[in-house]
Every structure is written in structure tokens, then in C-alpha cells.
Amino acid sequence: MIGTEVLVVGGGLAGSVASLSAAREGAQVTLVSKSESTLQQASGLVDVLGRVDGDLVADPFAAIENLADDHPYSVVGTDALRGGLALLDDVAGDRYRGGDRNALVPTTQGTVKPTLRYPASVAPGVAGDGRETLLVGISTDPDFDAKRAAESLDGTVPGDVRGVTVRFPRLRDDAKRTRYAKLLTEDDEFRDALVEKIAPKVDGADRVGFPAVFGEDPAFVRAELEERFDAAGEPVSVFEVPTGPPSIPGTRLRDLLRHELEAAGVELVTGVPVVDFEAEPAADGNDASELVTKVVVDRNGARVPYAPEQVVLATGGLVGEGIDSERDRVYEPIFDLHVPHPEDRYDWSAEGAFGDHAFARFGVRIDTDGRALDAGGAVAFENLRAAGAVVGGADTAAQKAASGVSLATGWRAGTRAATAVNQS
Ligand SMILES: Cc1cc2nc3c(=O)[nH]c(=O)nc-3n(C[C@H](O)[C@H](O)[C@H](O)COP(=O)(O)OP(=O)(O)OC[C@H]3O[C@@H](n4cnc5c(N)ncnc54)[C@H](O)[C@@H]3O)c2cc1C
């Protein structure tokens, strides 16, 4: 049996924040995860609360006051969100920007996304100051139609937006984004040739946006490109436009977190799904309360048991395998935690793609301490907390709140798990 003070299950944003929060409180933490999380598919933007009932939110902290009582933010409180954001700010340092009000970040789809934290490489593109923008698409990357995106943005944000598609020099048609990133980072001649192609199209624009392919060191690539535009007589700010998967900014955020977890002494064990657990009555004599005593992972077919003092479940939502469903039930597959849902499966979804879907709010419910609740609203296990998309009660995709909920619930679960360890 492998002992650990805090066992975190799941290596996404929520599990990483829970692990770091607990480790920074002095707990010994082991993080086990089955596979990669959604981080490298995500945009790298940290959305906290961008929309409520379809309306844009400018100040997420003010808007949180009016959310339903069972929304994860209402349950864990804004201090948990502040705690999670402070941790992220500390980890990201000058690589991220943002304050207490949402910024509108242009996307490759030609929309603007209300977000609270965004990579520094994205910052010069934030909409709202009326500066003229040129978007540059890559002819071999069909996911970013720069002309279409620019047409759509031109009508919605202050300042002219134009789009142009160029063929990047020396790239095969099937080149991956990581290949563009490598050339942009390492090859002077490639950067020269690229700016030579684009400079004649700048035509007085103040900034030039590229799909987010600037690699591991976007500050370096931006500076190199800006220097060349300057030399060509077209001084501009260069920025990245977040893309869909595979996302280089999402991968950067994953790597930042991983580096910080290692630095904080968190033991990272990957490729090991949790497959089983054992519990026993808690020692406090309350018949109804139980403690998780053993968590079993599958390591290449071998069952490896952990004996944690505290557990944080951060296995993701319907997308991330943390919540599953059959024809007639929705469930949490490891601890069989209660997941409220309508009896009739026809009520799980509403009409229309953007309807008020019950499935979007599926997830386990937690108390203010982050502990998972049973069907009667009581604590399911004294030492089991849940964080991130496995927690239900909000349509975080519609509200543009997914990362914020992971920060708030992850921070709450991690700090309280560490407190429980320190008090034991
Ligand atoms: C395509 C996409 C785009 C997104 N874009 C944005 C965006 O623009 N802005 C934003 O704020 N958020 C965005 N998000 C949401 C965000 O990336 C996270 O999904 C969200 O914060 C939830 O993270 P999580 O840590 O709870 O879950 P996940 O990221 O899903 O991580 C779950 C982890 O649990 C592990 N796991 C699952 N089951 C087990 C098991 N049995 N045993 C051990 N480990 C297990 C998985 O392997 C994984 O490591 C996006 C998500 C997706 C999918």
C-alpha cells in the first residue's frame, strides 16, 4: 500500500490547482491521472464568467453575486476564486495578463471571447481600443480563415479589421502547427521570408495577428517578427489569436503547471486510471459518515493500492470521463457519487443546440468545503473532495466559466484537504 497525505485524481487544470494548493500548504501530494487532460485542446484562455443568460459580463466578480445558489461559485465563494486566480498568477508570472474585468479576445472563428486571463502573446490583440488590425491566415491551415474572421470582427469591434491568407514559405501542405512553431522559433531566414510576404499587406495597420503558433517562447517570436516589420517600414504589434485543438497556448499552460507541480514536490504518476476504492465508517462514531481508506489504480494490468488521508477527485466532466451516462442514469464512475439528473432521459437536453440543456449542468454536488455530497445532501465521504468539471450545477461552456470553476473548486479542495491533513 502506498501512503500519501493527499491523493489527487486527474491531471487537468482542476487537479493541478488542487495539488499545488495542497502542496503549498505543506501537504505531501500525489497526483495520479489516466491520460492527458483537456488543457492542450483548450485555448489557453482562462475564462471565469463571460456570459450570464447569454449576455456579456464585464465584471465577473459582480455578476457572481447573482448566480443560483447551487452554482459552484456560489457554493465555494469568491474567496476561493480569488485564491485560485492568485495561484495561477503566481505560476504564470508575466506570461499571462488580465485584471478584474473581462477582456474581449478575438478568436479564429471571428468572434470575441470574454476572458479574465490570457497569454501575454494574445494581449496586443484585445479588442476595444479601436486600433486597426490585420489578421494573417496560413493557407495550409484550414482552421483559420483570416478573411472570414476579419469580416465578422470588423462589424463587431471598434477599429478596422482586415484579413489576408499567405502561404508560409517552406512548409508542406500537411505541416502541423508545431512545425510552424519550430521554424518561427529557430529559423531567421524563415522569419525574414514570412515578413517579406506580409509587410506589403500591412498598409497602415497597427497590429498583426497570427494563429497561435509561436511555440514555447512566444515573446521571442513576437519580438523577432516586430523587429522585421519595423525594418520594412511597417511598425506593428504582433499577437497570437487563440486556435481550436491542438492548441499551442493550451500546451504551454499545461507545461507551466507541470513544471510548477514538479518544483512543488508533487509526485506525478501518469497513465494510471483509478479503478476501485474502499471505504470504512469514520472514527467519529457517526454511522452515516465514511472515510475513503484505499484508492486502487491500474498500472499495466496490476492493481496498485494507495492509502491516502485525503482525496481530491478532479476527473473532468462528460468530456473528460469524470461523469458517464447510460440510457437511464448519469453517474460518477469511480466512487459512484450522486449526480442529480432528470428521471426521464428526454429531459436531459432541450431543443436547439444552444438550448438550456440539463446535461450541461450534470456533475457531483459539493459543500462549501469542497466535499462531495450524497443524494440526501449529506457529505458522502469525510475525506473526499471534488473539483473542476466533475462538479455540476452550472453550464460552464455557455457561461464561459470552465477554467474559473476549476480554479475556484481546485483551490478550495486542495487547501481544505491540506488543512485536514495538518489537523489530523
Ligand atoms: C476543446 C476544449 C476547449 C476549451 N476551451 C476553453 C477555453 O477557451 N477557456 C476555458 O476557460 N476553458 C476551456 N476549456 C475547459 C478547460 O480546459 C477544462 O476542461 C476545464 O477547466 C475542466 O478541467 P478539469 O481539470 O476539471 O478536467 P479535465 O481537463 O477533463 O481533466 C481530467 C483529468 O482526469 C483524468 N481522469 C479521468 N478519469 C480518470 C480515472 N479514472 N483515473 C485517473 N485519472 C482520470 C484525465 O486523464 C485528465 O487528466 C476547454 C475544454 C475543451 C475540451
Structural commentary:
The chain has 424 residues and is α/β, with parallel strands linked by helices. The chain folds into 2 domains: 2-95 and 250-423, FAD/NAD(P)-binding domain (3-Layer(bba) Sandwich); 123-241, Rossmann fold. Helices cover 29% and strands 22% of the residues. The protein is built from 10 helices and 19 strands. It has helices at residues 13-24, 60-64, 72-76, 78-92, 146-154, 177-186, 188-202, 218-231, 248-263, 402-423, and strands at residues 2-9, 29-33, 51-52, 55-56, 96-97, 103-106, 112-115, 118-119, 133-138, 161-166, 207-211, 237-241, 267-270, 274-281, 290-299, 302-313, 324-325, 330-331, 384-386. Strands 1, 2, 13, 14, 15, 16 and 19 form a 7-stranded mixed beta sheet that branches. It has a 4-stranded parallel beta sheet with strand order 10-9-11-12. Helix 5 (146-154) links the parallel strand 9 (133-138) and strand 10. The longest helix has 22 residues, at 402-423. It starts with a strand and ends with a helix. The structure holds flavin-adenine dinucleotide.
Using only C-alpha atoms, the radius of gyration works out to 23 Å
Which small-molecule ligands are present, each listed once?
A: flavin-adenine dinucleotide
Number of helices: 10
| Share of residues in helices | 25-40%
Total discrete domains: 2
How much of the sequence is in beta strands?
Answer: 15-25%
Order of helices and strands: EHEEEHHHEEEEEHEHHEHEHEEEEEEEH
CATH topology of the largest domain: FAD/NAD(P)-binding domain
Structural class: alpha/beta
Q: Which regions contain 5 or more consecutive residues with pLDDT less than 50? A: none
Going by CATH, the architecture of the largest domain would be 3-Layer(bba) Sandwich
Shape assignment: globular
